[in-house]
Amino acid sequence: MGPVFEDDRSLQAARTLGKRHVQGIVADTHLGQPRGIALSTSASSSRSTAGPPLVALRNVAKTFANGVEALAGLDLEVRPGEFVSLLGPSGCGKSTALRLIAGLSEPSGGTIAWGRGAAPRARDIGFVFQEPTLMPWTTVARNVAVPLSLRHARAGDAAARVAAALARVGLSDFRHAYPRELSGGMKMRVSIARALATDADLLLMDEPFAALDEITRHKLNNDLLDLWQALEKTVVFVTHSVFESVYLSGRIVVMTPRPGRVFKELAIDAPYPRDERFRTSAEYAAACRRVAEALAAAMDAAA
């Protein structure tokens, strides 16, 4: 049985994911610690991200059937091990870019090239939508097992993967609970566990924490970074929040209003792991100010 989604768009995405064998529906992570922070126009991270890109979008355009031009001339490279955030106003094509990378939609123009010259393997991509998209009638453990069921994993292997994923997100004691018994933050943890169970290499996250309160959001940001660092995944993270993007990212891609394209890329040179000392530091505040200025300039350029 596949996952149940709350709207037709997500349902169609799930069906496409199943057809293309993109397993999992969530994300992984990183943690952080302060030092000096600098911004530049080239990518930077405490992790090595040298070498060819994992995926590259070259002059990508996307125009929908209703005539809406979501993307035009988008150039973006993502290297293995990076935590990259796409930052921009609503409707600028951030989510569209994620769906193109995932294979949930096809570009109208341009190319999407993978580092090995071919589309990713079955388990190489995990996608977390804005909502947890959990099946309300079954347990946490069975929700986490959904992508493993789609892959026809052996029962014993699937049970071990589910248990390990729930332990990583701190929900081992809630494996028999139902979604209605969970808080919003716990539901998102279940979604993250679902992707962890598939061991996806590339994690695409579409504003997963936007609907959460600030305290829960900060906690999940920390947990996400912790997992990213421990599991050495590649993350592309969509957000509207300057503050969230600076805290999480090694690189921030600022996009213009629709049709979306890259306006500026800024590297966040603060080392990982990061924690509350970084979030309350003068360096973090300065970085947020500069990213906010870049976002404002992108908006002005499109006016």
Task: Describe this structure as you would to a colleague.
This protein has 303 residues and is α/β, with parallel strands linked by helices. 36% of the residues lie in helices and 19% in strands. It has a 7-stranded mixed sheet, with helices on both faces. It has a 3-stranded antiparallel sheet with strand order 3-2-5, with helices on one face. A hairpin with a 6-residue loop joins β9 and β10 (262-268). The model is unreliable at 1-46 (pLDDT under 50).
Keywords:
single chain; 303 residues; alpha/beta; Rossmann fold; 7-stranded mixed beta sheet; 19% strand
Domains, number: 1
Order of helices and strands: HEEEEHEEHHHHEHEHEEHH
CATH architecture name: 3-Layer(aba) Sandwich
Q: Based on helices, strands and strand pairing, what is the structural class?
A: alpha/beta
Biggest sheet layout: 7 strands, mixed
**Regarding quaternary structure, how should these chains be classified?**
single chain
- How many helical stretches? 10
Helix content: 25-40%
Stated plainly, the CATH topology is called: Rossmann fold
User: What is the residue-mean pLDDT, rounded to a whole number?
Assistant: 83
Beta-strand percentage range: 15-25%
Principal-axis shape: globular
- Strands of the widest sheet, in order across it, are 1-10-9-4-8-7-6
Q: Find the count of extended strands (DSSP E, 2+ residues).
A: 10
CATH superfamily: P-loop containing nucleotide triphosphate hydrolases
The top-level CATH class is Alpha Beta
Distance between the termini: 47 Å
Low-confidence stretches: 1-46
